[in-house]
Amino acid sequence: MPVMERIQAEVEAHPIVLFMKGTPQFPMCGFSSRAMHALKSAGAGEVHTVNVLEEPEIRANLPRFSNWPTFPQLFIHGELIGGCDITLELFESGELQRIVSEAAAQ
């Protein structure tokens, strides 16, 4: 399957997807770690993660797919939410909790 189709399939198959460096248990970058922590703190139970360090094709092509240059990248219901800074801002405002609870309810 071509890489752009693989990315699309990942984003469509799970309500919450975080493309990150490393894994939730062993993040390989502070931004990925903070984004994952914000999601968990917001009550996200099931977060599907993709370790872009183990998926070089996805790492190379995701910025073109999403039109977002950096990692991590958070998608909820197929829509790009943003990177670490936006995720943290949403968490601090309480908006991430609402988005996550709506995603879990669907």
From TrEMBL:
Protein name: Glutaredoxin
Record-linked Pfam families: Glutaredoxin
Domain Glutaredoxin: 16-81
NCBIfam families, sorted: Grx4 family monothiol glutaredoxin
The UniProt record lists the keyword Metal-binding: yes
Record has Methyltransferase as a keyword: no
PANTHER family reported in the protein's UniProt record: GLUTAREDOXIN FAMILY MEMBER (PTHR10293), MONOTHIOL GLUTAREDOXIN-S14, CHLOROPLASTIC (PTHR10293:SF72)
Top-level taxonomic group: Bacteria
Gene3D superfamilies, alphabetized: Glutaredoxin
Organism per entry: Pseudoxanthomonas sacheonensis
Keywords noted in UniProt: 2Fe-2S, Iron, Iron-sulfur, Metal-binding, Redox-active center
Family membership noted in the UniProt record: Belongs to the glutaredoxin family. Monothiol subfamily.
